[in-house]
Each structure stands twice: as C-alpha cells, then as structure tokens.
Specification:
heterodimer, A: mainly alpha, 63% helix, flat, B: two-stranded antiparallel sheet
C-alpha cells in the first residue's frame, strides 16, 4: 500500500488547497450581481414556470443494462489477458468459449435494437 | 521510490506533488490552450491571436491564456435560485480533480540508479496503474453529470446525455485496451513501457509461422516493439474510445454551448467555466500521455535500450553522470512523443466536425466494441502462434 501514499498526498494537497483557494478567489475577484434579476441565466427556456426535466426514454435503461453486462464480462477478461502466456492452448480455447457467447449476446442486443436506432 | 528516512521521504513526496501540479496547471495547461488556439486559427485560415495584435506585447499569443484566465476570474457568475448552493466553484473543481489525480500514476521515465539508491520518475508506481486512470476518467464523467444536476434545467439534459455517452465510451475503451493488456501482460504502466524497450524482426511472424516460434527473431530488419506497431488497430480504437470517454472533441457535443440551447458548461461562467476549460486541457494531456505510454514506447529510444544508452553515455562522460544524462534523454524522448500526441489530438479537434450524440453512441457500441472483440481474438491467436510474449 506504500505506493498509494503519493496519490493520497496529491488528493489531500490539491483538493484542500485548490478548493479553499479557488473559493476565496471566486468570492474576491468575481463581480457581484447588482441585482438578483441578473442571476437569471441567459437562456430564456430556463425561465419557464415548469422545470425542463428530460423525459427518460427506455433507451437510457437498455444502454445502462447492456453496459453493466458487458463491463462485467470485460472485467473477467482482464485476468485472462494478464495471464494469457501461461495458459497455453487450453486457455485459448477456454477464452474463446467465453468470448463466443458474449459475441452472440451482443449480436442479439444489436438485432433487437437495444444499441440505439 | 528509494527506502529512507520516512520524514524526508514524505517531504520529498510533497515536493514532487507540488512540482507535478505546478507544471501541469502552470505550464502545460496554458501551453495546450495556446497551441489549441494557434492550430485552430491556422487550420481555419484566421489571423489568430498573434496576427491581430500590433502592440508588441502578444509574444506570439503566449500571454493569451493568462489574459483568458484573468478575464474569467473577473466575470460575474449568474447564480439561478434553483441551482445548488456552492455549485459555482465546488462542482467544476470535481471535474478538474480526477484528470489531475490520474497524473500521479503516469510515469515520465524509468528507474535510474543514483549512487546507491534507485529512483523512479513516477509519483505512485501502482500495480493497477491503467485501471486507476480508467476509474478516474469515469469519475470525471460523473462529475459532469453532477455539474448538470447542480444547475438543473437544460444543463441536466446535457448532463444525462453526457452520462450515456460516457458509459458507452467507458465500455469501448475497456475492450479496446484489452488486446494491449494481452500483449504486455501488466497493468503497471512502467512495465508496459519496459515491454516496448526492445525491437522485433519485421518478417519474424512469417518465419515463426513457417519454422516455429524459434525463428521469430530471424526476420531481417528490426522495428521498435512499440504498441502502435505491434497492434495498429488498437491504437485507433483506444484513441477514439478514450476521446469519447473523456468528452474530447469531436465528441464534446453534450457540453458545448451550441448544443441543447446550452450544454452543461453553458450554465457556468467565471471561475467555474475556467475550471471546465482547465479540465478539458488536462484530459487532452492525460490521453496524450496514456497513448505515448501504451503505444509509443513511453520514454524509450528506438533501437536503443536503457542499458545500451547508459553504457554509451558512460563511455563518453563516465559512469557518475551516465544515469542522470540517461534520465534527461528519456525525459526529452517522452516530451517529444507527448507533443506529437497532443498535436494529433488538437488536429482532430480542429479538422473534424462534432459528431451528434446518437452517432457517437453508435460509433462506440456498433463499431468500437465489436472491432475490439475481433482485435482481441486475433491478438490472442497471433500470440498463441508466436508462443507467448517473446515477439
């Protein structure tokens, strides 16, 4: 774990100093709004009485589920890739048996239109 | 890092962090901003930042990033009532931090012997370096979603699209990088570069197929064993997928002002907008560094391994300074390759039109992921024929 000390120091130093420094700088340097009306964003649509909540289509959820499935499959392939040299022909065949159903599932999703238009 | 007194080691680490962050934010980010403007002007045939100024203060436009930063600092930042308190600065800061932190895992040189101690030119030599960088890249996209959520309205729509595209890019990048993990057998970036510090025979593969793996090295002239030469399709796939993942042009449509009547960034002004701009330049640098390490041999010199270079320098100046000079040469080599990659990314930004959201999604799911799977199978097959990583 010793090698993570550098990352931790960076997180601590950068996040604390940058956030405090920038918050101070933003408060001191930025011009104040003379009126709260100037806080209205420039886009007229932002000022509509109803908030512009986007409609969440089914496509978003399908993409998310497909992402989860394939990302999990990809994670399984990482140790396979790292230890590929020692696995020999048997490893190659086993890897192919893993990738083949993945490809079939991918083709099925594609055909069903789950990957977009 | 070398083992020593914990206090001095800690202060050394703090100094390294300050140096790295200072160089990145104070030198490299403004330089990328300057280069981006100059290149875009040149490609678009415009006179540009230096061409329109005759006061002698422009210094070829080098002061422009400073002027931009000062201008943004003084701008008023509208704060709509429905937006989250503190979103003005804190959330853009969350967009900046992940690419900045990812540089902790980027090695800028190898391991060098100075007297009795060996030093690595990396802040954190992690065993899972690539995974950490991928994870931090994912956090950056998440922060963009927060940025949209905090401001609400149209910015939220842009943020959700950004999330969908980011997830697709994440998957595509993961699959595109798998063949390279197969070739180098490591997640540690320094080891991946060391794996490229050699040469391979151009016709070695054919000889190995005909006469067996033993004939791999006897294939006529040699070529540097860089990732881009070992697996050229993976370079293109990783370049495109990572550009989508990090929201770099031409895949930044969800964040720019012209889209959705103002994307995520359009909801911010002043310091917050400046932080978004810093994050975009940091991501350009991070992707360039990643491509340099995985595909261009990092700091290595073609046809000259580190041992040969140290021996050669020691022959001329003595062994005392050999490692120091070797480090300087390696840093220069890394810098030149990094510059080439930044130039490539900026040229892509300048020359290509933005891709729409759905076309970018299609590119990830329907081209990069299947092509990466085919690349993975082919790479595994070729490596099996060659009998491992000896090639």
């Amino acid at each position: 774990m010793a090698e993570y000390v550098g990352v931790l120091i960076m997180v601590a130093l950068v996040s604390v100093t940058a956030s405090l420094g920038l918050a101070w700088l933003g408060r001191r340097a930025a011009r104040r709004s003379p009126s709260s009306r100037l806080d209205t964003p420039p886009d007229p649509a932002e000022n509509s009485p109803r908030p512009a909540e986007p409609a969440m289509g089914v496509g978003f959820f399908l993409s998310a589920v497909a992402f989860l499935v394939f990302q999990a499959a990809g994670l399984v392939l990482v140790p396979f890739a790292l230890s590929f040299t020692g696995l020999g022909s048997e490893g190659l065949v086993q890897g192919a048996f893993f990738v083949l159903p993945l490809a079939v599932g991918f083709a099925y999703l594609w055909r069903k239109g789950a990957l977009g238009r | 890092m070398n083992a020593g007194d914990p206090t001095s080691e800690l202060s050394g680490l703090i100094l390294q962090v300050l140096l790295l962050v200072g160089l990145l934010v104070g030198v490299f980010v403004p330089w990328v901003a300057w280069a981006e403007r100059k290149l875009t002007d040149r490609v678009g045939g415009r006179p540009g930042i230096a061409g329109t100024q005759g006061d002698g203060l422009s210094l070829a436009g080098l002061l422009q990033p400073l002027a931009d930063g000062l201008k943004l600092l003084g701008k008023r930042d509208p704060h709509p009532p429905e937006s989250v308190r503190g979103a003005r600065v804190w959330i853009p800061l969350l967009v900046v931090l992940p690419p900045l932190l990812a540089f902790a895992a980027i090695p800028f040189g190898g391991t060098y012997l100075f007297g009795e101690t060996s030093r690595s030119i990396v802040l954190a030599d992690l065993e899972v370096g690539i995974l950490l960088i991928f994870g931090l890249a994912a956090l950056g996209a998440l922060a963009t979603v927060w940025a949209g959520l905090a401001r609400g309205g149209r910015a939220l729509l842009g943020a959700l699209r950004s999330a969908g595209l980011g997830l697709s890019g994440d998957l595509a990048l993961f699959f595109a990088a798998l063949p390279m993990l197969l070739i180098f057998g490591s997640l540690r970036l320094a080891e991946i570069v060391q794996g490229q510090d050699s040469s391979f025979a151009i016709f070695g593969f054919w000889n190995a197929v005909v006469a067996g793996p033993g004939a791999l090295a006897s294939g006529g002239p040699t070529w540097p064993a860089w990732g881009i030469f070992l697996n050229p399709p993976a370079f293109v796939l990783v370049l495109v997928a990572a550009s989508v993942r990090m929201g770099l042009p031409p895949f930044d449509g969800e964040r720019v002002e012209a889209e959705l009547a103002g994307g995520t960034r359009a909801a911010y002004s002043g310091l917050g907008l400046g932080l978004f701009a810093v994050a975009a330049r940091l991501q350009t640098l991070l992707l360039a560094a990643l491509l340099t390490l995985i595909f261009l041999g990092g700091w290595t010199i073609p046809w000259l391994s580190q041992a040969e270079l140290v021996d050669g320098i020691a022959h001329w100046v003595g062994s005392g300074m050999a490692n120091g000079l070797c480090l300087a040469v390696h840093l220069a080599s890394f810098g030149v390759k990094l510059l080439a990659m930044v130039f490539l990314l900026l040229m892509i930004r300048s020359a290509l039109p933005r891709l729409g959201y759905e076309r970018a999604m299609d590119l990830c799911w329907k081209i990069i992921v299947p092509a990466s799977l085919v690349d993975l199978v082919l790479t595994a097959g070729v490596m099996h024929v060659l009998g491992g990583r000896g090639g």
